[in-house]
Design goal:
By secondary structure, the protein is α/β, with parallel strands linked by helices. The chain is 40% helix and 24% strand. It contains ten helices and ten strands. The strands form two sheets. It has a six-stranded mixed β-sheet, sandwiched between helices. It has a four-stranded antiparallel β-sheet with strand order 2-1-4-5, covered by helices on one side. Helix 3 crosses helix 4, helix 3 packs across helix 5 and helix 5 crosses helix 6. The longest helix has 20 residues. It is globular and about 55 Å long. The structure holds adenosine-5'-diphosphate and magnesium ion. The site of magnesium ion has 3 residues, from helix 1. The site of adenosine-5'-diphosphate has 11 residues, from strand 2 and helix 1.
């Protein structure tokens, strides 16, 4: 079943067409990767889907609902969440608090206020804490829960950001370069984690430059070049396509 349907999506920045007449569909439970050189439009595509920016043209449908141009909060409430290319954790808070912020309907402020308030809220906080601990366990950070986030090693901070994005229990999770800066061991852990998510009811959109990871975990790959869709197919088809090799994969394959 098609969960996400993108049709003729277009976004210009001044003279640059960052996303050009892009159409594709994502099925429920798939891991779909978006690859292409820097500046190809991958992050812009994620920004459009999550409502951070609005398209000039085209439509985005999620669960058959037209979400084109809706505000980020509305889109998140429908079950779409993301991580960012650059880490966006809250320094000064612990590891588990960072995940709780992700789960909390009222964000960071709600979490802080709840510390001083009445029993109903305390109950809700316990629920959110339990949910947050579940997510920490999934990414292997249970024993780090009480340490300040800023002293967590970088690779674990990236995993934590995924745990936080999962805290809202989204139906679709967008990961923008989650393996950036990770070593091989950390990348393997990340790959195993992402592979588990569809079984938990999540559909994954992934932007990554690490081709080994992409080819290992993706069901479907969309290749972008200068804002346009150059090709799409399964990993084998992408690796063997002459256009893709010429535009992007060439130097990585040989
Ligand atoms: N907010 C913005 N303002 C102006 N230009 C932008 C903005 N965001 C992206 N761009 C431009 O759009 C193009 C695509 O960028 P981006 O989506 O970040 O590519 P990628 O994530 O594939 O590296 C680039 O030329 C970039 O400079
Ligand atoms: Mg990017």
């Amino acid at each position: 079943m098609s969960l996400l349907e993108i049709e003729n999506l277009t976004r210009n920045f001044g003279g640059v067409t960052a996303v050009a007449n892009m159409s594709f569909q994502v099925n429920t439970g798939e891991i779909v990767a978006f690859i292409g050189p820097n500046g190809a439009g991958k992050t812009t595509l994620f920004n459009l889907i999550t409502g951070l920016i609005k398209p000039d043209y085209g439509t985005i449908k999620f669960k058959n609902i037209d979400i084109t141009g809706k505000v980020p909060e509305k889109i998140a409430a429908l079950g779409i969440n993301r991580t960012f290319q650059n880490l966006q954790l809250f320094n000064g808070m612990t590891v588990v608090e960072n995940v709780m912020v992700g789960a909390h309907r009222h964000g960071k402020q709600g979490l802080l206020q709840a510390g001083f308030s009445f029993p109903g809220v305390a109950k809700e906080e316990r629920f959110i804490l339990a949910k947050a601990m579940e997510k920490l366990e999934l990414v292997g950070l249970t024993d780090k829960k009480d340490i300040p986030v800023e002293i967590l090693p970088y690779g674990q901070q990236r995993l934590l950001e995924i745990a936080r994005a999962m805290a809202m229990e989204p139906k679709m999770l967008l990961l923008d370069e989650p393996a950036a800066g990770l070593n091989q061991g950390e990348t393997d852990i990340l790959g195993d984690l992402i592979c588990k998510l569809p079984k938990m009811g999540m559909t994954i959109l992934l932007v990554e430059h690490n081709m080994d990871l992409i080819m290992r975990i993706s069901h479907h790959i969309v290749v972008l070049d200068h804002g346009s869709k150059l090709f799409e197919g399964n990993p084998g088809e992408v690796q063997n396509d002459a256009k893709v090799i010429a535009a992007y994969l060439g130097e990585e394959i040989v």
